[in-house]
Amino acid sequence: MKMRTKTKTKQRELPSPLLFLIPILGAACGTRAAAPPRTSALEAVRDSGEVVIGIGQDAAPFGYREGDDLVGFDFDIARAVVARLEAHLGRELKIRFKAVTDETRIGWVQSGEVHMSLCHTNCTRKRDARIDFTVPYGWDGKGVLYALGRGERDLAAFAGATIGIKRSSSSQGEIEAWFEGQGLEQPTLKVYDNHAAGIRALVDGQIDGFTDDNSIIINTAMRAGHGVGPSAALNVTKTSYSRAQFGIGLPENDSDWRDVLNYSLHDLWNDREFQAIYERWFGADSMCPIPLGQNRMEPFVIG
Amino acid sequence: MSAFEVVRRLLVGYPVPDEFVDPAYPELLQRLGGLELTLVVAATSLLLGLPLGALLAVGRQGPALVRWPAVLFVEVVRGLPVMLLVLLFVHLSYPLLGVRVPVALLGTAAFTLHAASYASEIFRSGFRAVGGGVVDAARVLGLSRRQTLVHVELSIAVRTMLPAFLGLLITVFKDTSVLIVVGAAELTCTARQITVSQPVNMLPVLFLLLLMYGGSAALASLLVARLERRWPGADPRNDTKGLP
């Protein structure tokens, strides 16, 4: 015979901790309402005399450490754009850089923590739904870096292979779309925290290839002491599965700010200062030359 | 990059250019990097978090008006992964407060709350460890209320709490590595900067990280063990001291 004992325990139960999250999540979702009044970033910069710029530090040649110094294409463009902004606003501006990461480069633009963000950010539609971009100020292709040991290969040869990609890169969707479009077996994608770690894995033979913007993977590989090219240990596929266009990230729907930054970039282009900066980082003497060729800005007519 | 240079960078980080320093906040904190920043964030979080934790523990014994906010705070903060806490601080500080705060400060604030929530529970368990009979016995032996608190209750409570506090200290110290995701130049972030920017082998850098985190934690353990031995009544061997 089964004995059933029913014990009545009078217990004061605490509400689930998850319930306590409700006010926090409410606050988080309601930040738009609680946020400081949204004036144009242009007004904020003009009033404060300070422009806060989110900038990446972990990807050569855009932003990286050269010895003790922080240098790169994004740093030079940011400083040049601010110099033009000073001319547009008729006042001196102080630059304040804030280091951004994959987790903050978009979010900080949305929240207003930074007035603009330069972090080799590819202007994709998905990102454009969250923030706005200036006209592109950088262009690149996306191929796959691979070890030349088994001979030269092109993209199709990586069907079913294991390819490393960097976390938070837009490359994942783009490479999957390319293989699907070609009717080829999808590669297995393995995510790495940073480019250097992915290239290390490639050199160690853990993956068959590594991909992201060509300029970044080539620069990172070469700075790590690996030769890249048809007669070196590593090479990049001739075919790209996607193009990259880098834009300055701006708060959504801030037309005045976007206009003045676009005009600043146009002025740099018209005065050929942009081309001089571009040549320094992507010219024939750079680690990854990308001739301007058809990549160009189309400045509005002044008038 | 020489081995000496790698170690130096891991210890003190890279120089921070003036354009990254916000004059509205202490410059020193913004110029720190590497192990130095890790230690400062961890130490500050614990120095601020422990008193806050003590207040919370006391609050949990108080009237409902104080008890429930304290319970709410501890249950919420303790239930959140510290990474999420850091991300909340980093993404909500400007929209909610309208001021731009350096990430090292935001990280310290997040870790302070994290430490406080755990410390409050350690304090609670420490004081619960003091049995009512012990207090009664002390009073019967003629000790005043103050003497009972200092020489009996605190002595037993601290002895109980010390190992747990050591655990919290080490947890906070090593968990500061999550600040890498928001770009604070602490030890792990500096190691990544080195491996990303310099043609150095990643494994020796990781090994140095291991030594620095492990060595610092071991040092903390030794210091706490020493403190435990010196604490009145902390070492069971000391309990027999003075007895015939």
Topology at a glance:
The complex is a heterodimer of chains A (303) and B (244).
Chain A: H1 17-29, H2 31-34, H3 41-48, E1 50-55, E2 64-66, E3 69-71, H4 73-89, E4 94-99, H5 107-111, E5 116-118, H6 125-128, E6 132-133, E7 138-147, E8 162-166, H7 171-181, E9 188-192, H8 195-203, E10 209-213, H9 214-223, E11 234-236, E12 242-246, E13 249-250, H10 255-270, H11 273-282
Helix pairs in contact in A: 4-10, 4-11
Chain B: H1 3-12, H2 27-31, H3 34-59, H4 64-79, H5 82-97, H6 103-128, H7 132-140, H8 145-175, H9 187-197, H10 202-230
Helix pairs in contact in B: 1-3, 1-9, 3-6, 3-8, 3-9, 4-6, 5-6, 6-8, 7-8, 8-10, 9-10
CATH superfamily of the largest domain in chain A: Periplasmic binding protein-like II
The parts of chain A where pLDDT drops under 50 for at least 5 residues are: 1-15, 30-34
User: What portion of residues of chain B is helical?
Assistant: over 70%
Please indicate the count of domains of chain A.
Answer: 2
Biggest interface, which chains? A-B, 49 and 37 residues
CATH class categorisation of chain B: Mainly Alpha
Give the proportion of residues in helices of chain A.
25-40%
The count of domains of chain B is 1
- CATH architecture descriptor of the largest domain in chain A: 3-Layer(aba) Sandwich
Order of helices and strands of chain A: HHHEEEHEHEHEEEHEHEHEEEHH
Query: Between the first and last Cα atoms of chain A, what is the distance in angstroms?
Result: 98 Å
Based on the structure, what is the oligomeric state of the protein chains?
A: heterodimer
Number of strands of chain B: 0
Q: Looking at CATH, which topology of the largest domain in chain A would you report?
A: D-Maltodextrin-Binding Protein, domain 2
State Rg of chain A.
Answer: 24 Å
The CATH top-level class label of the largest domain in chain A? Alpha Beta
CATH domain topology of chain B:
MetI-like fold
